[in-house]
Amino acid sequence: MFRLLLAVFLFSMLVARESNGLLSESVANRDADDFVSSSSKKVNALSHTKADVGSISSGHVKTSVVSHAVAVGGIGANWGSQASHRLPPDIVVRMLRQNGIQKVKLFDADYDTLRALSGSGIQVMVGIPNDMLSTLASSSKAAERWVSQNVSHHLTNNVMIRYVAVGNEPFLETYNGTFLRTTFPALRNIQEALTKAGHRTQVKVTVPLNADVYSSPGGLPSGGNFRANIHDFMLPIVKLLSDNEAPFTVNIYPFISLYTDSNFPIEYAFFDGNAVPVNDGGTSYYNMFDANHDTLVWALQKNGFSNLPIIIGEIGWPTDGDRNANLDYARRFNQGVMARISAGRGTPMRPGPLDAYLFSLIDEDDKSVQPGNFERHWGIFGYDGQPKYALNLGTTSGLIGARNYSYLEAKWCILKPGARLDDPKVAESVSYACGLADCTCLGYQTSCGGLDAQGNISYAFNSYYQKNNQLDDACKFNGLGTVTRADPSIGNCRFIRMIKPYYGGVGRVSRDVGKTMSLVLGIIIFLLNGL
């Protein structure tokens, strides 16, 4: 009996330990001795958030920045993972290659994503989320193990990792200094770990920063300098980058200035040259991009880093969720970015080629909407990997969408015909659905902003239904919902049909758990044979 109890106990303990260990492999262990993987999907709620950033012209133009680079050349794109239904990584990598996208910026170091990039020839920037900075800052051993697991391992498997992004906009003013004292130590430890692993010349560190890390009190680029309250935190970071021939990475968003300031001159957001120029000591700035970029250049020069290369970590325009977030503006802006990249034309202070990553590749419906309802609609491709608009990337005649994946069944959840709109359960149900799904297309002058009350309710119901994989219980809504096989989409308002879910490394986890269970069962059989 003792051996039987021992066998049962051993089985339960080992399976539980193995399952928990494998299933959490993508979440970094906070213990320094086991802090290995940065595949965490728990990116901060404001990850890649775009913040309002101070004025930079004689009018109301706001600052946000960019520039030229270390490994200039080729189109770059941000590939995020905050989507309820992700496309399989191998399909996305095929999209990248077919569209001539030669560089990709990640916000983590997801194992399956990096494995899919193996042998692709695509340059990769892996990311360390902000919630890992504290551990990496306090433990050089943790940094060494992170580099071993998330850089060295993949380099060996022919993944072209070229950068490690330490944190993501960690100095945002909205973070209230949370990461001020951990960003540089984490950066230093990662750099030392890369050097120790023999990657110093091949892989560069950087810190993607929002443009609120600097300001221009006089409103002109030449007045640029780092924000006074973080100046002493910025200098060690910039010096480390300079000492290691690594780039300064910054995110620029003219759209945010338009979103936050009704007086912002809209033509100044684009590259067409139609705006009234801003004159700075004889230099004319016809768009926000150039002015913001050169504000950063001035800030670097004033602090002794005139030649530090600059990467534009994020630049783009959303397509929904706000009256200025639409397909026409997004096409106009992103085509302007591509024209600059294709022409190899920089700015007055840095006339050379730009190194830029479009934000973003694919829509992400799980992103926080705290910055605004547009936050889930930055992709040049929709959630299903299909192009939203015509965009010439300079390598193809147009965007090439994802292939070889499947949608869920052709059915939608709508408000039951005849249901009373004044039923108190309606408002409660809509609030519930929108709180857990995505209703950001229902705002004023958005793609579905013209729906009537019944249409709004149906849209909310369907969004929840699709996000929950069309489960029968996901269309109940206190008896108000019903499933239809007639597509309720109207005009430009698309009622989505979700793609089949991708479960990441579950297959790998299942295989590994299976191996462990086989081993445990063998031990149990051995023990039981002795009874």
UniProtKB/TrEMBL annotation:
Its EC number is 3.2.1.39. GO terms for molecular function: glucan endo-1,3-beta-D-glucosidase activity. Residues 411-495 form the X8 domain. It is a lipid-anchor; GPI-anchor. GO terms for cellular component: plasma membrane; side of membrane. PROSITE patterns: GLYCOSYL_HYDROL_F17. Belongs to the glycosyl hydrolase 17 family. It comes from the Eukaryota. The keyword Chloroplast does not apply. SUPFAM superfamilies: (Trans)glycosidases. Keywords: Cell membrane, Disulfide bond, Glycoprotein, Glycosidase, GPI-anchor, Hydrolase, Lipoprotein, Membrane, Plant defense, Signal. This is glucan endo-1,3-beta-D-glucosidase. Its main location: membrane.
